[in-house]
């Protein structure tokens, strides 16, 4: 109970009853309670040190209610955590699905340059290597000429039953008709006939430079 002071500062002998304990704090190492006085308004509540109070039942009731409130708050927080995790997991799954849907979105067809089936077949056939007379089962008749105009050696082959000649890579010709290749070069070799008279002339020419 708390003695109240009168206006002139004298201590009144009247004791005031505590209606309830509203709060608790520690100030300068001492515990104080915020008290509601019986018969007075909330505006006249005061902080009082624990050592001056004789309302242990009200203090104990306040402490018990405070502990119960803290336990209840703790349980409420724990029960809300799984719900939050579940909600966030649902949102994440939704976002993942949206991402997958966006990633698998079909690319629109290019309408600016449509190609017909005929053009597509033509392009595909142009990329394939051209068939030679050998691939068609034709028989080579002779070699008309040889060239390296395309950067690699090719023979101009005359096939039987075909009026026009055809350029065929040397790598193919050397395997298919090696004898005709040898014959072609033999016909174009220039043979030099060596005799004793020519040898004497060559010797005299070199002697003139000595």
Provide an overview of this structure:
With 210 residues, the chain is α+β, with helices and mostly antiparallel strands. Helix content is 42%, strand content 24%. The chain contains 5 helices and 8 strands; from the N terminus they run E-E-E-E-E-H-H-E-E-E-H-H-H. Strand 1 and strand 2 (11-16) form a beta hairpin. Mean pLDDT is 76; it is low at 5-12.
Write the layout of secondary structure elements.
Layout: E1 2-5, E2 11-16, E3 18-27, E4 30-37, E5 46-49, H1 56-103, H2 117-127, E6 140-147, E7 154-159, E8 166-169, H3 170-176, H4 178-187, H5 196-208
Antiparallel strand pairs: 1-2, 3-4, 4-5, 6-7, 7-8
CATH secondary-structure class of one domain: Mainly Beta
Unreliable residue stretches: 5-12
Mean pLDDT: 76
Largest sheet: 3 strands, antiparallel
- Structural class estimated from helices and strands: alpha+beta
Give me the number of helical elements.
5
Number of strands: 8
**Cα shape:** rod-shaped
Taking the alpha carbons of the first and last residues, their distance comes to 148 Å
Rg from alpha-carbon coordinates: 58 Å
- What's the CATH topology name of one domain? OB fold (Dihydrolipoamide Acetyltransferase, E2P)
CATH architectural type of one domain = Beta Barrel
Helix content: 40-55%
What is the H/E string? EEEEEHHEEEHHH
Provide the β-strand percentage band: 15-25%
- For the largest sheet, list the strands in their spatial order: 3-4-5
Properties at a glance:
single chain; 210 residues; alpha+beta; OB fold (Dihydrolipoamide Acetyltransferase, E2P); three-stranded antiparallel sheet; 42% helix; 24% strand; rod-shaped; repeat
């Amino acid at each position: 109970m708390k003695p109240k002071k009168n206006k002139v500062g004298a201590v009144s002998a009247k004791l005031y009853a505590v209606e309830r304990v509203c709060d608790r704090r520690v100030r300068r190492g001492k515990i104080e309670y915020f008290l509601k006085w019986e018969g007075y308004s909330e505006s006249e509540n005061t902080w009082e040190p624990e050592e001056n109070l004789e309302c242990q039942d009200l203090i104990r009731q306040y402490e018990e209610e405070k502990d119960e409130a803290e336990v209840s708050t703790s349980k409420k927080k724990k029960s809300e955590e799984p719900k939050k995790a579940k909600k966030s997991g649902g949102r994440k799954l939704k976002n993942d699905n949206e991402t997958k849907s966006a990633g698998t979105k079909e690319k629109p067809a290019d309408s600016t340059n449509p190609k017909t089936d005929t053009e597509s077949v033509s392009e595909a056939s142009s990329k394939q290597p051209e068939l030679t007379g050998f691939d068609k089962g034709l028989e080579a008749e002779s070699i008309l000429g040889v060239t390296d105009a395309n950067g690699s050696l090719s023979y101009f082959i005359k096939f039987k039953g075909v009026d026009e000649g055809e350029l065929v890579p040397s790598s193919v010709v050397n395997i298919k008709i090696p004898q005709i290749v040898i014959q072609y070069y033999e016909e174009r070799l220039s043979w030099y006939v060596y005799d004793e008279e020519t040898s004497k002339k060559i010797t005299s020419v070199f002697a003139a430079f000595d």
